[in-house]
From TrEMBL:
Converts cobyric acid to cobinamide by the addition of aminopropanol on the F carboxylic group. Residues 49-59 have a biased composition (Polar residues). This is Cobalamin biosynthesis protein CobD. The keyword Transmembrane helix applies. Residues 48-70 are annotated as: Disordered. InterPro entries: Cobalamin_biosynth_CobD/CbiB (IPR004485). It is found in: Cell membrane. Residues 60-70 have a biased composition (Basic and acidic residues). The lineage of its organism: Bacteria, Bacillati, Bacillota, Clostridia, Lachnospirales. It is a multi-pass membrane protein. HAMAP family: CobD_CbiB. Pathway: Cofactor biosynthesis; adenosylcobalamin biosynthesis. The keyword Disulfide bond does not apply. GO terms for cellular component: plasma membrane.
Amino acid sequence: MMSLAACAAGFFLDFIFGDPVWLYHPVRLIGKGISFGERQLRRLCGQRSCPTDPQLQGNKTEDGQPESGREDSRKLVAAGAFLWVCIAGLSFLIPLGVLALAQKIHPALKFVLETFWCYQIIAARCLCKESGKVYDRLKAEDLPGARKAVSMIVGRDTENLSAEGVTKAAVETVAENTSDGVTAPLIYMLIGGAPFGFLYKAVNTMDSMLGYKNDKYLYFGRIPAKLDDVFNYIPARVTAMFMIAASFLCGLDGKNAWRIYRRDRRKHASPNAAQTEAVCAGALRVRLAGDAVYFGKLYKKEFIGDAIRQIEPEDIKRAGRLMYVTAFLLLIVFGAVKYALLILI
């Protein structure tokens, strides 16, 4: 019961205050642990890049793959898996142990500490704040400033984006991170308190840092990327359902959100990313996704949604409101279900 109250309190603290910029965030510590572990494991493997590099290729096997390359790729996959177990395990066990100790000292101390951690884990206010900076620059007709602002929240190259491209990138980020940054950690915390929340953040952070399909991370990041898909599979789809309901409450096109969701929810390389993007595109009646440039290379992507109308800066604000209503609905429903189960059990 205390964990449920701490989760709800943490959510509302984030809604009111957002992330305190002066305070060291636990995710930064997780990130440092990932970077340190990666360096050590690569040193042990004797690798710094993908084993498909010509320098790493030796004699070829019968199937045409270099012997050394295949052996090195296995080492890197195993190293990435080992790092995942270590980071995920520590991110769960340390908060669990600290909260157990706090409980022994006084239950109120445990509640305060868990509330604070839940507050730090949820990133709704931060997402709205950063996307709001993009909106402000667009409204001021400051395209260079808008490109710089959106570059802080997206992975694609933004130097040559038009105002429409900047707007679309911001809306896509808010839509996708409604699940990754808000509702998914909320679901895990409602299930297992702050320790589950930190476990999820560790999994998500490892995917963000290691889950690239490039020469450096093709093998090392394979397991972290796959397990992030697993951890987000159910939350992404649950969030999409709540977002469709939220579309009606926000005065958006809920019927179109459902139509586009059914049609376009699989139009992404990730099995989860297009779930909420499709709903948002349908609710706003705009077209999202499409080709994008990453690290100077053009990647072909399918469009999500129909261009019933042209996207505009106000859609950034609409996406933010949709995110919050989605999160509120999920908190109310999941919180009520957990409360009922606790009473019955």
